[in-house]
Amino acid sequence: RLLLLGYLTDFLQEIPDKGDWNAYGLQGEAMNNATYITLDKNQIIHFRLFTSDPYFYPYGKSIAALAVRIFRSLKMMEDAMIIYRLSRAPERRIFYVDVGNLPTNKAEIFIEKLKQKFKKEKYYNTQVGGVDERYNPLSMDEDFFVPTRQGGGTKIETLRGAENLGEVDDVKYFRDKLLAVLKVPKDYIVEKDQSPERKANLSQLDVKFARTIIRVQHSIEIGFESLAKKHLRLLGFPETMIKDLRIELPDPSDMFTKRKLDIDAQKAGVVQQVVGLNLFPKSQIYKEYYHMSDAEIETTLQAIEDESAATGEEQLAAQQDNLQNGAGGGEPP
């Protein structure tokens, strides 16, 4: 796409060479050497999230725009946690080796030979016809060999592995922050020890989360309507049918639907009481409680009168048929 002063002017479709995967996503000077075809604006459908931020015009800010940095931090924190567990979980050993009265340089050589003895295992290699050495995985690379003197003796101690493997508060912090940015209720992630008290208010959280989903659905509905109307125009349908087309996605929550029905039922009860008092005209009631315009009110009242007239004509015709059947001696219906 090409932008001119913040407005879309042209749409370009890149045509890469066959089998050339490097041609995708060209930028800078590479775009001048690529092959493009110009598309008409009616060939493009935009699903956009409207926002007041001019930086993201005309498409709007992504749902996950604020969550990208937090997601990366969460991923790095999880990787660090795994690395820590792999490197610190195994037990290590401290070998206290009695070197007697050996000089310092000879003591170091003696310790190094002892380390190689533990880390490598000698075996007879039939292919070369001699003794060979291979790595012994039972000995960890991080074991410690400490020379001792003055009758300290040779002994082996075990260093326990990491004991704080259950501490994941830092990971939970970034997880909760990510859920907050995405508007997902944190209580949807039900903890095992807190599930009895959290399940009680999930229905209310479901209603709040449904409002966020409905905002996104509204943007998707606009895109679907634009796509369907263009398709119907290409098929030759009259414009009078196309302009009344509406696409509505279903409610994302049963509790949200139930709450709307309860509100509508309560509103109908209040309107019925107000109408019974005969204090206000019907046009004012429509405007006050149902937020209808003057044109919608006039159309609604006219439709009610037409339905009442049609119902009266049907009842009158039925009464005449009953009288005719009674005069002819037939059985009443």
Characterise this structure:
This protein is of the alpha+beta class and about 325 residues long. It has helices at about 70-90, 105-120, 170-180, 195-200, 200-235, 240, 255-275, 280-290, 295-325, and strands at about 1-5, 5-15, 35-40, 90-100, 120-125, 130-135, 145-150, 155-160. The chain has nine helices and eight strands. The strands form three sheets. A three-stranded antiparallel β-sheet has the order 1-2-3, with no helix packed on it. A hairpin with a 2-residue loop joins strand 1 (about 1-5) and strand 2. Helix 1 packs antiparallel against helix 3. The relative contact order is 0.06. The model has no long low-confidence stretch (mean pLDDT about 75).
- State the assembly state of the protein chains: single chain
Which overall shape is indicated by the principal axes computed on the Cα atoms? elongated
Q: State the total count of DSSP E strands.
A: 8
Helix/strand-derived category reads: alpha+beta
Along the chain, the helix and strand elements come as EEEHEHEEEEHHHHHHH
Strand order of the largest sheet: 1-2-3
What percentage of amino acids are in beta strands?
5-15%
